[in-house]
Amino acid sequence: MNKLSVEYVKSIRENIETLPDGYEVLNEGVEIGNGITPRRSLFLEESGYETYAAYKKDYADKGENTWEVLLGLATLEEQIDAIKEIYSYSQRTGLSIQTVQVIPSFLTALPKEYRDKAPKPTSYVIEKPEDWLDHQAGVPLQILFEDQVLSCPNSLETTVNSVKAGSELVGLVSQFIWSQPGFTDDRQHMIDMVKSIGIVKSKRDRHFVCNTYLDDGFPGYAMDCATYVGYALLEHYIVHDLCGARYQVSWGGLLSEGQNRLAVGLAIHELLSTEEQPALSYINGSTTMQWDHDIDANYGPSVQEMLLEALADRHYKLQLTINPVAITEKITTPTLQELLNIFSAGQRAMERASDWENIINWKPIEDIRDYLMEEGKKFFENTLNIMEAAGVNIKDPLEIFMTLKKLNPSKFEGTFHPRISENPAYTPKYPTVLGRDTLRMQEQVIADIKERGMAEDALKGERIVVVSGDGHAYGLLLVDGVLSSFGAKTVNGGVDIDPSVALDLADEEGITNIGISVHIGQSIDYARQIAELAKKRGKEYRIFMGGKLNAILPGKSEATDVTDLIMEQGIYASNDLYETIAMIGKKK
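Structure tokens predicted for Cobalamin-dependent protein:
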């Protein structure tokens, strides 16, 4: 056990305000849940399955896969129309689509009084209780509410409405580390989250489950695949062992290497699945191998990825749902047709599954699985030992969540990983894509910039604050590394940073250069807000932005490039880091 890790966690615990008893909070949630009668979905009514879990088990027993579409369009009306079209499409083609997982905007995660001042993303907002019910759209599909529900600041409202609407998977646990614009009361956030887990727990007999998506939480910052497994064990301990709720795991968006990607899930399956409760819910398509210069070519890695995971699901009877991502996912919000296209490609690839099933050697993946199981258990045990030594009550779910909430996500792995905490230079045996590809991409980008004639000390003497506007760290780490390599001294402010906080950090450090990494739909509103705030402060900042430079504009239903609109705000917008470095250098 690393002493510095203990001291770091202890410093966090000592500064946490008084908390109520976690079990009293949990039981308040159970009482709320006991007063809710979930609606039975039209899918269950027409299919005859008692629960969504029974449907998945039946398909696994028959050697068939289950699939879902992940959908988040610009307005509620478009969303409902799209759900109808998905069902119509499945009827016309004969392809098997039973589930739609919806993704409303992060504004749904905020209490209503905070929404007006928050940046407007590309997806729709669920405003009224009846909006949740309207997603059924009169068609026999299972509608699942997971993003922006169980672990958000607005979780009591969103969880109650998800359960009422009959969503048997309620998520996503891992997103509790996310910050939402303008909301700073972490104590109330965690209290409401534990209470929301109690609401889901109250429907345990009906197989309602607290679901997680590992890539959206601490594992999204990890360099070692073993961290994925260890963290899943930690969440399972809190949600299942302490709270008594059902718990399942989804993962995959940041893991694109087939063997490692599957081995993570298989390790969790072996450690946590029981006959009565499978451990895995869905595997998300990855985007790390997608091109942005030849979009159609992205069918290649996507189809082989879906084929392998669907074959693994059949071979190990995982009861795993395949969740494809569109070939445009890396650069913009996918259209409905793009989602249907990738879904069709994956399902049609499985028409010849028998050609592959008897020739695949699963042993190499099982060897990785076994290693990750052992390392994951060590990670989990080390985490609890460090927390207990730091004075955290490891029998109280609220106290554990509150401690984790206050933890810097970029320090999570280095604090609790038994090997990395003792040796920061440790090279993982099975690194994550973040660990391997971030360094690889940094090297490629740096080499390209140098080949174009940029001097190695082009940013010497420049100090730059770099932040991410949402919970994704990938782009932030890349930009930080590239700017540093050309001589800049960077201050990494982390993820989920509001415009005002980005400016505060720059002011505290006496820095005028601010770099912002943005995700889908954030860019234009973020640019407007930070430009207005900067003007009010009466200071000259050099602000630049990169990432997903698109948004759904008024009157439009699809995301469009907004680079020019951002530039009109006085903010430099580009994904060409050569040009960005040149811009900063010219303004010395």
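The longest strand covers residues 66-71.
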